[in-house]
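Appendix B, Record 12. Input sequence as logged:
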Amino acid sequence: MAKSWTSLVVAGTFILTSVVSTGAAAPAKADAKIPSFIDESWTAPAGLSNDDKVFGYLEKQKDALQLGDVKQQFQIKSRQTDALSGTQHYKLQQYAQGIPVYGAEQTVHLDAAGNVTSYLGKVFPDAANSANGLEPKLAGSDAVSLAFADTEKETGKLGDIQTAPKADLYLFNLDGKSLLVYVTEVNALDPVPVRTRYFIDAVSGDIVRKYSLLETATGTGKGVLGDTKTFTTTLSGSTYQLKDTTRGNGIQTYTAKNGSSLPGTLLTSTSTTWSDPAAVDAHTYAERVYDYYKTKFGRNSLDGNGLLIKSTVHYSKNYNNAFWNGTQIVYGDGDGSTFISLSGDLDVVGHELTHGVTENTAGLDYYGEPGALNESFSDIIGNSIQGTNWLVGDDVYTPGTAGDALRSLSNPTLYGQPDYYPNRYTGTSDYGGVHTNSGINNKAFYLLAQGGTFHNVTVTGIGREKAVQIYYHTLVYYLSVYSDFSDTRAAAIQSAKDLYGTTSAEATAVANAYSAVGVN
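Logged structural output:
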């Protein structure tokens, strides 16, 4: 557990349209000589518990990882079993002198027979050699105050804060140098929606890094596109509420009435017929996303434990965005030119809610390659729920332009994204290309599902059904905060082996798909 300070102030989170960087650097790399993926299988001695097998495997690999006593430097964060394959998946966190190392997460995997099959993750052997020592001079509350003050220089006085901020103490690798820092976030709605993560030197109080997490992007009723939908509501007295109590801990839909208070007012009707198209779609599509994760993957809501899904429509005026704020999803009505009501596209709803799944599983950092992967997995799974084409946002984007979309999985270059890793964007805008470089992983998924020859590599398609199973398995069980494209290739191949066999055609197809997009 990270050491933390919590106040009574409240903050939030965000997710869909592009953002402009203020110069955030890419994630710090672990030593290039230290492997991030080890696929050496190991049959443990009889009688060991699975926990002991994990630590035994790490002990076996400690020279390669350049670490000492593994039980002092690793702590188990979670243990998961995939019911479909019978595989078991451990997530661990590296510590140095009892302090967690930011981004240094690892996953270790066991097959159905209990043998360890692989390791994936980042370690920082020199983390304890902190340039500013191992004792903070600032309190966590000071770090929170510094972050809020910095944000207010840009936005003015912050108003509606969403969740209680905290300051967690970490050792952070910045450009090859270890620093003791507090990590905190500013998350507010007024005067503008913001969610910024800060890394603050725990001794000097300097802001050493910051970047935005604003990831921008049974009743009956007609939806935004005029189609009639059927969904679950709840009768309370003589009034129907836009509340579904049959799925997890519930699905509830509210209206902000073109204001900015969340969640707003729970929508009600005097009959089972509803006349608010944006609300009809938001509620129905939240149910569809829940059902998809439950039926396809056996996942009970976004956190796997039945998390209540709250949606708010009619946020602000002419608001061309939708976002996930860590506790709920929010939709603008659009300006009628760039967007119509954003809840009217299942791709958008699936994309935003999948960010909630990522936040509760891999936790991919929202910048550089991890950020591009964060966006890509939301595109891939969000688009697969409807599964009718390979376009994202085509139902609500630029209503005056037929066939237009935000992104294309089949041809990312149509919308200014690279589809080949050597052509990736390497600058600092868009937080290192989180919305730009996502096209590379999207293209790999498309090739895996559909097949084709790309850059002289032929991929035999395995179908969208199998492909999305592999990508979900990769996201939930293998990836972590600093996973990059190369890690994802290794993890997706191993996931295909978990699900379909070590010598399967599916595993070969994954390898070929990533080779085709230049990821090795």
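The radius of gyration is 23 Å.
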